[in-house]
């Protein structure tokens, strides 16, 4: 008898069954907490970088205002401007290193949560794991620095190349004039890097790409619907200090949930493409569900293959 191949719906249902709903709310709350904890040192690190750049802080502020909702940028921008005004260029290296270490707690938490969603074991060396999170935090600051250079000096650099070397790249000029496209591409690269390198797995990049695309869609929906949500929620007064804090918390919470959902989408796509259907059936069978998820599953499987032989010998002796 030839086994029938599962349909797309059957395989999809089994993939959902072996990946039950995760605690996305808890993950979002944990990440929001660490971001609030790290926002001050992270802003201090960004201020240290901005202090050595050859342009005014007003240009940086305009980029941040475009990237965040007005209710959130009203809280972040004054803190950043205060740090920029009080930052010393001589203390750049030390200030950057010290401020990035507590800020790396965010990516350390992201790494732990993604390992849970990806069903991966944590990295054995805690120092390597923390260093990995620190590198990602440093990469984020470098990304912000690079984007700022592109937004501010992109057209100037392009005009210099054209006038000096006669190099004309028309499509680059069109891209530079569309800062939203550059921001979108940079966000995709960031999310792809998080999903590809943060979890302790060695998967094909296509799965991280799917997660990054889902995350981009989620971020876009939140940016469009966040103002609508606040307009309908009359209990939040965005003009008071507590109201502003609540607005920032809500905005962070939903964005962190999007990061978790993007990771979950990557796992679903991976299991749909890679996992054996019969293995998923065995894992989701009620009788064997516990054994399939138990660390002693191999022992259980070996006992199942030996048990019929014992029964057969006992039956023969009784019949004899």
Automatic annotation (TrEMBL):
Keyword RNA-binding: no
Protein name (Swiss-Prot/TrEMBL): YihY/virulence factor BrkB family protein
Compartment(s) where it occurs, according to its Swiss-Prot or TrEMBL record: Cell membrane
PANTHER family: INNER MEMBRANE PROTEIN YHJD, UPF0761 MEMBRANE PROTEIN YIHY
Keywords: Cell membrane, Membrane, Transmembrane, Transmembrane helix
Membrane topology: Multi-pass membrane protein
Source organism, top-level taxon: Bacteria
Transmembrane intervals: 31-53, 91-110, 131-154, 174-195, 207-230, 242-269
InterPro entries: Virul_fac_BrkB
GO CC annotation terms, alphabetical: plasma membrane
